[in-house]
Records
---
Amino acid sequence: MKEIAEKINELAEKYKDYTANNLSKLVKIKSLSMEEKEVQYELKSQMEEAGFDEVFIDGIGNVIGRIGNGKKILAIDGHMDTVDVGNIDNWSFDPFSGEVKDGFVHGRGTVDQEGGPAAFVTTGRILKELGFDRDLTIYFVGSVMEEDCDGLCWKYIIEEDKIKPDFAISTEPTNLNIYRGHRGRMEIHVHFKGLSSHGSAPERGKNAIYMASKAALEIEKLNERLAYDEFLGRGSVTISEIISGSPSLCAVADYARIHLDRRLTWGETKESAVKEIEEIVKDMDARVEVLYYDGVAFTGNHYGMEKYYPTWKIPADHVAVTTGEKAFEDLFGKKPLVDKWTFSTNGIALNGMYGVPTIGFGPGNEVLAHAPDEKVPVSDLVVASAFYALYAYMI
């Protein structure tokens, strides 16, 4: 395996500019959720150029490239949609320049997270050049709509495409560390029903905003007593939006709604999280709702799921993790840091919903995800493309 590791490192370095230039091409194409068509066809073209055995686009627009035809399946996933750029004045360069300069590829999506797919295209090229012959099928997935609904793409791949991996790697940014889980999350609305009256006589009515405000103060307290996990940390809840309605600005509000961003640590579930909020509003005319996502892919197909994204982690001694550690050590001569993401990924479906042993390894620092002046080191892309290749030989 040492000889293969050396060859992989040599090829990853040899194709450094190839990887960076491929990423540059992707970054130049704006690709918000449900608007990924152009970038998906560019990725498909890159996979085909790299010599993948098969490349296709599925019903909701995921680009899936295959190498090998073995019984065991490894999936390497990276989502191709990005968030928008925000206030352009906060950027010191064009977010869609894709400029390769000073050892970095610059632009929106370089870290979150087209850098991973650019790296795994090179992985495919390396594996084909080495004549990869293990009893393994590798699916390289450029997935869609993740920014809008984590895991939706993999729900489709597993349930509709009928591809269920035995192992998976998420290429979300990990700063070249190995990640083995993260907190789950869910989106909740709480609806409050009041009774309107003229604003000159509020005592005749029942103000929904006051109900929402009282609940909000209790939810703030709830955040301080949520469950804690030694690896994943504490659960959290915050109110990210409040809206209200009334017949006029001279009337008591007869409706209010709050939006909750709930992060779930180990042991917390959809049911337990809903019950906590229902307990807070039990004496109010209120309804707790877990939201549902129904998106329209660029292919025109509707697809959706409940906005409950399960918590997941795999044990530190799981073969998926230890194989990653061994591959990293063989390639780079040092031990990797094994940790977790702060944010949420497609791992909520791969492992959280379907139990697929999943690790994370990706180029870039997650601090730059969704931030201005996003850029990824070219050296990270080289490391990632080598890591995925050796992992395929070892798993």
---
Amino acid sequence: MSTRNNDHIYINAFNLISGIGPKKLYLIAKHFDAFEYAWKSTSRDLADAGFSKKLIQDIVNQRQNIDPATEFQKLQDSDIQITTIQDKYFPKNLKTITSPPFLLYVRGNLDALKSPSIAVVGSRKISDYGKHAISSIISDVARSGITIVSGLALGTDAQAHRQALESNGKTIAVLGGGIDDTTITPRSHINLAKQILDSGGTIISEYPIGSQPNRGTFPARNRIMAGLTDATVIIEATKKSGTLITASHAYKFGKKLFALPGSIFATNSAGPNMLIRDKNAIPLLCANDILNIFKNVLNSGQKSSGQACLSTTLAGNQKILYKTIKKHPEGVQINIISKQTKLDTSTISSELTMMEIDGIVKNIGNQTYILI
């Protein structure tokens, strides 16, 4: 496949035609010396390239109403760049996956696409437990220099992006529609999208500006998140959640897959628990679980606080309490802790106070404790 400097103009034009997706763009690149030639080709040329009669007619009809230069100017006016699989900025991780995208529309920092990264995805109806996990684990990962990738959706996605921003880290949003200001969805996250860009982050999509996301574009978006990153983290998901599509892609691509374990009675933990059982997902207990796979790319001084992995360093009663509370991810009361540890409540209260000061546990009310 070869390219010319102005090929992006015509690649974008072809991508505006309904019926043209990654496979057809690859077909054009394989058959024609340049996309400009393909755009100006005859129906016979398109037939020789392997296009069906219906698609050829669609191309002939639709390109009459598309001015490639005008459409490309719209991208420039919105500070949107194009990178294709033929370009140096196209993420290497994406080149090797099954059915890679042919092109990406990019706003923001192109260099972020080359950085070590993890995808963080989960339920749109994130629980307090999920929020605590993101604030205590993903914050450490972001501070360590790993880029946080998510989908800008409600719930887990937004929480992951915001935690990366609050930790002065980088984050990438992968969308299932256009990335121009008038199209970004959900509309309630326009300000979050701008914060991502202002912080040196990136917003990407394989869909042209003006494209509205739909049920079909989200699974395709999920494959990009799983393919772009070095590992995927599943925070929460029901048994039939779309989040598990991302996990499935990560598993198929041979990427590291982490899942946050949770209560067997919590609907939102059903998905992660199944991934741990059925897909050998790594139980996510602390930031170091993730950072260990990046030890060759991180600076020696970049380490997480590792508070959620303290069971190996705590001693005596605190170690016992840690292990007991760990069994109750949604919280456990002191009286239950006492029954399970055989420790008296005064000792438990004293030790938990010290552990709370050290930032290991948190009293969420009614003498109920969770790990931070």
---
Amino acid sequence: MNIKEKIKSLLKEAELYKSQRLLEEARERYTLVIETLRQQTEIPNLENLINGVEKKRAELDQAIAKWDKAQITPEVSDRVQDLIKRLFTSASNERSPDEHAVDEAITLAKFGQHRKALAEFNRLVHVPEVCLKATKNAVKCHLELAEVDEALEMVVAWNRGGCYTPEQYTSIISFMRTSFEKEGIAWDDSRVYPEETQVSEETSSDFMDDDIIDITSIGISIDEGPMSGNHVELDVSFQSGSLLSLIVSGSNEALINLFQRGQTIHDVDFYSPIAIFKGSAVVESNTRINSGPKKGDFSLDIRIDSI
């Protein structure tokens, strides 16, 4: 077997292992491909080939890390399981004007109108019914704008203004810590808590508010079309209850075409700070973004159907 055939064979094995969720085995095959390529000197575009395979291996490392984290996540309590079922198994169409206003602000943010969205969240944070949703999505707006200090100052000011109960504030800080760390931003509790307040990691992570369970990203196993056999992960950009907004690169036409309005997506992994849940979702919209920093990409809205 010549080098070209050997590399093709290893890559096919890696994709087969990925499709069966045998991630460690797939990673071994990618590593073998990289090592084999590095021993060559006459292959055209050698560095580009190596970089491409290293990217695939890095994506696997992220997936492996998430699964490893799931293995050490404590079992979800009965109370949280009941909450998950209540929030996500069936989505109510009866929404208050304030809940509708939150969703409209999220839509503004999705399409790059972050300042207008923040103005709405600033108004809605004073409404107890939606204050948590407004706050968490306002934080995401500031992170989209690379405004870390502004996000921290905003939440601290809203807390001083009496917008939250102590338990809600703990939930928000836990959410911010996770969001910051996901973006590679250093976290410092002293910036959001008075010096005399001591809050343990266990306390903040154990609290579950009654308004929203944060889904940070999703994983989808594709079993049809040109991407069949791939496991795709997408970050959640904004969330309102069971409605998740995702961004799909405009260059990924094969993936975009998979998601049609009304389509049910089966075998979805929902990643949250407390656990990984399996379930299904329904596509609510798939819309091209025509302005702002995400111009050319697609805003994909899915609603969690069951967990």
